[in-house]
Amino acid sequence: MINAATTRDQAKVMGRFDITKRLVAKLQHDEAVIGGIGHTNWDLWASGRRPQNFYMLGSMGLAVPIAMGVALAQPDRKVFALEGDGSILMQLGSLATVAHQKVRNLAIVIMDNGIYQITGGQPTATGLGTDVVAIARGAGLAQAAWATDEAHFEALMDQALAEPGPFLVGVRTDEQKPFGQTERDPPQLRDRFMRGLGVKT
Which class for 70: exposed (0-12), middle (13-18), buried (19 or more C-beta within 10 A)? Predict the structure, then answer.
């Protein structure tokens, strides 16, 4: 299902909230999901408030490092990082670390609309031609691909749930406003997530 030949320009532009709901609907075994800041996070919140979801606040670029830490600490749990294009551009080095550490239970989903949406719509490097999937493959993530459409995205998520990774899936997304906004209570978000992972009672 991984097709390295597809480029960013060839991928269909899809609804970010719809894609997020499609992923959440597949989670049946207490998989952990780390939502990056901004609209990626808020759509995860609106898709179902699972205790295994972690909603980042104000920590741009850290969804992948945090997800990697969770995956290494709990190797029997599948872990997903949902990150925006602007945020992953701040932490490209984390992709090399994921590859070198061979984090087999980690899948990274990059929601790429080519802009910094929460700060006014300024173009990101991906909007100017940078291909984060190509970068990921260059960093050593062989199982990196663009989702060509919704059905392909679902197939890639099924693969990530069933097979060893690490995986990285790029998704071209629209500029639709989010369908909710995460509550801004960091201690509560942290404690709920820790209980969801079984590390706090």
Answer: buried
